[in-house]
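Sequence only, no structure available. Ideas?
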Amino acid sequence: MKRIYGGIFDGLYPKLPTLCAELKRPMNFCPRGARVYCVTKPDPDLNFVEVLGHTRLNRIVRFDVPWDALRYPEIHKVRAVIAERCWRGTKDETAAALEMMKEKLGTVSSDVDPFAPDVEV
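Reply:
I predicted one. Tokens follow.
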């Protein structure tokens, strides 16, 4: 993806709220635990989410990620250079998309390690 200098939002705002998640496993040159940014509005009916992610060479790449490769969805304030290429809605739309992502990832992912000892709280 070509780097854009002096975009519309970059000149007006330093940071913008964007839907982000963390990669559960390494994918497409992006290491495990890397933050990815949702490019399109997440759709629970699709099997993949289109995201932007930083490679190990610190380049921003656009790729598709399956739902089970994501964890910890949140809304973060991201630099406007990155956020202007991502999906952003109104405050209510973004909150609804975040809740949908949390529900979808709660049903898809299992962070339980089968070899972990049982812990009683």
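The CA atoms of residues 52 and 62 lie 4 Å apart.
Hope that gets you unstuck.
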